[in-house]
Amino acid sequence: MQPTISIPQHWGYPRFALDQRTQDGIILGFYYYPNGTELAEQFDEGWRYVLMPNKNYDEISYLQENQIQPLSPQELFTQITSEIEFYQRQISILQQQLAALTGGSTNG
């Protein structure tokens, strides 16, 4: 069963999705300031996003929807390709360590 999030119809749909990569980081969460609330009057109605600019640091950003810059398809491709290459190198290192541990046999 797929997890679902219900959004009231009178709220606009969020522009960004959970775990989406942007120029500002990865979307970790979002919340909404509905019209007619003190928060919306003070900070404007709409979606707010929680982003992690760098997954290697304990840093979180809170941005309004119009402050977030999406990645271009080429930027997204480059970012994902780079991450795949990083993990492939990590796998290779782990395989070498395992081979050294088992005397060349990786069957256990």
Could you outline the blueprint of secondary structure elements for this entry?
Layout: E1 21-22, E2 25-33, H1 38-43, E3 46-52, E4 61-64, H2 73-102
Antiparallel strand pairs: 1-2, 2-3, 3-4
3D architecture notes:
The protein has 108 residues and is α+β, with helices and mostly antiparallel strands. The protein is 33% helix and 20% strand. It is built from two helices and four strands, in the order ββαββα. It has a four-stranded antiparallel β-sheet with strand order 1-2-3-4. The protein is elongated, with a radius of gyration of 21 Å. The mean pLDDT is 92.
Strand content: 15-25%
Q: Provide a count of the helices.
A: 2
Question: How do the strands of the widest beta sheet line up side by side?
Answer: 1-2-3-4
Which segments are poorly predicted (pLDDT under 50) over 5 or more consecutive residues? none
| Helix content bin | 25-40%
